[in-house]
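seq:
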Amino acid sequence: MVNPCGIRLRQDLNSRDIIPFIGVYDVFSASVAGKYYDGIFISGFGFAASYYGLPDIGFIAWSDILAFVQRVKTVLPHHHILVDIDDGYVDTEVACHVVSLLESIGASGVIIEDQKRPRRCGHLDGKLLMELDEFLEKLKKVLATRKDLFVVARTDATDIDEIIRRAKAFEEAGADAILADGIKDLEIIEKLKSKVGKPLVFNQIAGGKSPPCNLTQLKDAGVSLVNYSTPCLFAAQTALEDEMQLLRERDGYIQKDRVGVKECTALLHENLVNRSKE
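struct:
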């Protein structure tokens, strides 16, 4: 059975100038983000932090990410969901299996990268790249496996000539969009746009190597999709630190703030309603 989610994403790309995807770290953060945006990004950074309490350096098991995506899809059945699958979990056959399963549960697309293990966040130093032919073999098999799933090929190359070389190869292989991660200047996006005909993806992460930009700036540079990797995770860390400090300062006294049991329960009941509409 053909999954329409990838088709819907392509249709929206044709009718919208730019589509933001908000990175979430659990189903609750997805519930909040989903009230404001129709694009949800399943961030490897956020999931590794939330589910394992560990850095995003290769700990994620594909079965765990699959179960997470399924839970998010249950409460946000009509949202676009873009999933970070790292290098496809090392093995090509595993990558193809994961892509097939994600498509069957309603993911709209995946991002697969050309890093080799031990992997790193795209905005940190010390990244190692697969040989291009090795990655292309994996990418082509993934593309042959999917039905309509939207596949973003990501390169972690840093040299502009190598970024362009790999992006052209990804385009020729049939990738739906291209992401060059950890870039330091929007001029690289503009150069890349002049060399390839596929939609470009830009990764926004607070404190990362790329300059902070608004959607208008990114659109003008030639970006079609933006994945915000960690806004929910970093906001949660900030709020938790602040609240724990205040709780100690108040001698354990809980002060009513904007959100209490009624507001939280209301959001959770909205998820029950969303499930029934699926």
